[in-house]
Amino acid sequence: MPLNPDAVGATSDPIDVSWNSKDALLYAVGIGAGHEELAFTTENSNGIDQRVFPTFPVVIGYGRGSAMGKIGTFNPAMLVHGQQAVTLHRPIPVEGTATITGEIIGMYDKGKAAVVESRNVATMDGEPLYTTTMSAFIRGEGGWGGDRGPSGPKNVPPERDADHVVTYQTSRDQAFVYRLSGDRNPLHTDPAFAAMGGFDTPILHGLCTYGFTGRALLHTLCDSDPARFDHVEGRFASPVFPGEALTIRMWAGEQAGETIFTTSAHDGAGGDERIVIDQGLLRHS
User: Fold this and answer.
1) Residue 183: active-site member
2) Residues 164, 136: contact at Cβ < 8 Å?
3) Which stretches of the chain are DSSP H helices?
4) If we measure between CA atoms, which residue out of 275, 272, 280 comes closest to residue 216?
5) DSSP state, residue 62
6) Which one is catalytic: 61, 65, 206, 214?
7) Which of 31, 60, 71, 203 is catalytic?
8) CATH domain 164-284 topology
9) How far is Cα 243 from Cα 125, in angstroms, rounded to an integer?
10) Mean pLDDT in order along the chain per 10 residues (285 residues)
11) End-to-end CA distance of the chain
């Protein structure tokens, strides 16, 4: 078994990552923002200061700073992004440099697969800026007799109509813009590569769907103010195909300042929906 369960607790060397106004603008249009969100999509609109979407940390220094290189060897084609969380300690500035340190915080034996959890902590000027946490589901890497890890229902919506519903339409070419923020995986653009993965057409980046979802949550629940957006988490349940519509449903949670959400994909013409992000939770003010 090539994975090393003793890697839990391993950390990466700290690295510095930088971003600028253009990076934030490119990410904004990559997750579907446009003329109705000038604070996030322009830097020179009269009387409007540029702002940064709270989910932007998922692309800052994309592919750098992770401790995943410490877990052993595996076939990258067998890895699926399972869950993603972003915690904001303060709003992300339009430009800056942060120091990122990665850590492996969990490795679980699911029998025929392994789940690896990792966390990246970013500091700026010596103070926390954001924390990202993700889980990777790696097929064929279980079976060492380790802890199966947490399971069961989580962030389950109540059995009633949602308090808020927002639908966004993705573009057939959405992935070609989003990939410019760092994730150049050909699964999202190359039909031949997608076919090797069992897809009839390239699929949209899961983190692009995550960004669309974050937009809906920010505008609906935080009055478009990133300072009110504290934490978001969710599980990727199914792929999205570029050109599909995304419907985000939101329910007030049992605790003040918490909202449960799901994201569904559909053809936008009344066809069947499928859940693509579940176990969703937003903490906000």
Assistant:
1) yes
2) no
3) 21-30, 38-41, 174-178, 191-196, 206-221
4) 280
5) T
6) 206
7) 203
8) Thiol Ester Dehydrase; Chain A (3.10.129)
9) 41
10) 89 97 98 98 98 98 90 87 97 98 96 95 97 95 92 94 98 98 95 91 97 98 98 97 98 96 90 95 98
11) 45
The answer to whether 203 is a known catalytic residue is: yes
Position 79 scores a pLDDT of: 87
Catalytic site includes residue 205: no
Sorted by where each begins, the domain ranges of the chain are: 5-139, 164-284
Type and span of the H or E element at 107 = strand 96-109
Fold adopted by 5-139: Thiol Ester Dehydrase; Chain A (3.10.129)
Q: Give the pLDDT of residue 63.
A: 85
Task: Give the per-residue pLDDT at 77.
Answer: 78
Q: Catalytic one among 23, 109, 183, 278?
A: 183
The one catalytic residue among 61, 71, 188, 278: 188
Known catalytic residue at 198: no
Domains 5-139 and 164-284 share a fold: yes
